[in-house]
Amino acid sequence: MAEKPPQTYSNHARRDPPFHFFLLPVFAIHFLVSVVALIRAPALATAWMAVVALAAVAAVFKIRLYALRVQDRLIRLEERLRLTQLVGEPLRSRIGELSEGQLVALRFAADTEIPGLVEKVLAGKIDRKQIKASIVHWRPDYFRV
Predict the structure, then answer these.
(1) Where are the domains of the chain?
(2) What is the 3-state secondary structure (H, E, C) of the chain?
């Protein structure tokens, strides 16, 4: 099995080929074709096909977003447990102040960086992108949906 390349801030975003390069384009094109058909031949049947095509595009997006939302909730739980082990007081009692986005971003930080990074996040309320950009030792996450 091929070795995975080291994950960094610049390459951590993940594309899911079946979703990004097949499902989404097929449903989007189908929607556009159904709108063109409606314009060319306005009728109840072609209008209904356009509505169904739009519903299919919305369903594809919602299904993807539901999976990402569940994964973010699991990451949030995992990171809260990890932080309780890695940071001391008074930071430990302030873990609840971290937003979901901040916790999701912190998962990429190596254990040695966590205490200083959490202190910086709590002091400055930096967002997800800023957290990821400030990580020096990247902890890869290859399991993202």
Answers:
(1) 17-134
(2) CCCCCCCCCCCCCCCCHHHHHHHHHHHHHHHHHHHHHHHHCCCHHHHHHHHHHHHHHHHHHHHHHHHHHHHHHHHHHHHHHHHHHHCCCCCHHHHHHCCHHHHHHHCCECCCCHHHHHHHHHHHCCCHHHHHHHCCCECCCCCCC
